[in-house]
Amino acid sequence: MLRDHLEAMKAEFPTLSLRENVPWREVTSLKAGGDIPALAEPPDDIVLARLIRFCRKRRIPILLLGNGSNLIGSDRDSELLVIRLNRGNFIRICFADGRIIAGAGVRLKDFARACLERGFGGLAPLIGIPGRIGGMLRMNAGANGASISDHLYELCGFGPNGESWSLLKEEVAWEYRHASLPPDTVITAAIFKLPPASANEQQLIADELKKRSERQPKGFNAGCFFRNPGKESAGKLIDEAGCKGLTVGDAAVSDLHANFILNLGHATEKDISDLMILIRQRVAAYSGIYLRPEVCFASAEALENFYAAVPAPRVALTEDSPLYGVLKNIGCELVRPGEPADLIPTGVLPPETLTERACAAWLRDLVSHKK
Ligand SMILES: Cc1cc2nc3c(=O)[nH]c(=O)nc-3n(C[C@H](O)[C@H](O)[C@H](O)COP(=O)(O)OP(=O)(O)OC[C@H]3O[C@@H](n4cnc5c(N)ncnc54)[C@H](O)[C@@H]3O)c2cc1C
Asked: Which of 111, 156, 310, 368 suits a disulfide with 280, CB 3.0-4.6 Å?
């Protein structure tokens, strides 16, 4: 049990801030979930590295918390030690030789403001994303065709054994809301090379904030809940499938933007995930596309339950197949040839246009004929 190790943790790390039974409500924008058993805030890299090793040795699972703007807290009494980097160097910004070093705990809005004061720009398209640098890099957060990795030069942190690492931007594959970093990687800082601010940078920022306030719902939320399947908009699909206004308990699909789920007050993790399941079901029935979450679950079990509740077709395929990318986008579970599958598309190809919608409809027909 995590709680059995907390006294030893306090004794070994006197400078660590350690709070027990912290409500997920207090540290996430969605404000769902019960209590975090323990929230640790290390003062610096040295304590962080030692804390990671301490947890590894005692098999205590850890979860990094940024600004909690893309995270669904857990209802269950978990064994997680949640670590937040919001002290000391983790929230510092340094300017040196045209490069900008930001700690993982720096909020984007503070980063953008400090950069603008020094004459750096290029962040306007991202303004309004309520993340911290570490969480944003982990998610490769983005908007308006730009992403946080665009002006990145290098990032660094610790691996699961507390070993330090650093990687140039080019050494990581930066994809749509995904960075190819191993799951247990902790990001501690990043170096950016930003372009000079344009003459109308302030105006671009103001325009972006205005656009967001008009298009995004107010209230407790975690941004977009589902990934866009390829070029399709998840919000549009959810709307077309008739999900606007759906509710489960205190969780509701926003009327303004269908890819936003709102916590109307006291939504639990279960309310949120049951509503997500309902949306996946309806969109799959309507289009054949199986939406995948963009938000992160603090509980791995909740994510497993979500996928198990509405399983996507298993398709056996090699990675060099022309269908691989599009089938992945529409949420199919891709398995290697020879593994159990609902479909082995040998010889048959969908209509010449490989759009996500066309491919999903084609696949749905094939699977239903097979049944
Ligand atoms: C109103 C609103 C609007 C939004 N708009 C957008 C948008 O336009 N585009 C967009 O991409 N997102 C958007 N989001 C979602 C969210 O802001 C982003 O995903 C953001 O990158 C999350 O950063 P965070 O610091 O809050 O991370 P968290 O939510 O705290 O964590 C997200 C993930 O990153 C991991 N993580 C956090 N810190 C670290 C670290 N230091 N090292 C390793 N892993 C870490 C966490 O474990 C978790 O898996 C929006 C959210 C809200 C509430």
From this structure: 310
- CATH number for the domain formed by residue range(s) 91-202: 3.30.465.10
**Of 215, 229, 222, 236, nearest in space to 176 by CA:** 229
How far apart (Å, rounded) are the C-alpha atoms in residues 315 and 363?
A: 10
Dump pLDDT digits (tens) for 172-194.
999 999 999 998 999 999 999 99
Question: Are β-strands 333-335 and 186-192 bridged in parallel, bridged antiparallel, or unpaired?
Answer: unpaired
CATH code at 2-84: 3.30.43.10
Q: How far is the CA of 135 from the centre of ligand 1 (A)?
A: 5
DSSP string, 53-80: HHHHHTT--EEEESSSSSEEPPSS---P
Strand ranges in the chain using DSSP code E only, listed in sequence order = 17-23, 35-41, 62-65, 71-72, 81-84, 93-96, 99-103, 142-143, 146-147, 152-158, 164-168, 174-175, 178-179, 186-192, 247-248, 251-253, 261-263, 296-297, 314-316, 333-335
Query: Does ligand 1 come within 6 angstroms of the Cβ of 254?
Result: no
**Measured from the CA of 294, which atom of ligand 1 is nearest?**
19
Q: pLDDT tens digits for 99-128?
A: 999 999 999 999 999 999 999 999 999 999
Parallel, antiparallel, or unpaired: how do β-strands 81-84 and 62-65 relate?
A: parallel
CATH, range 218-309: 3.90.78.10
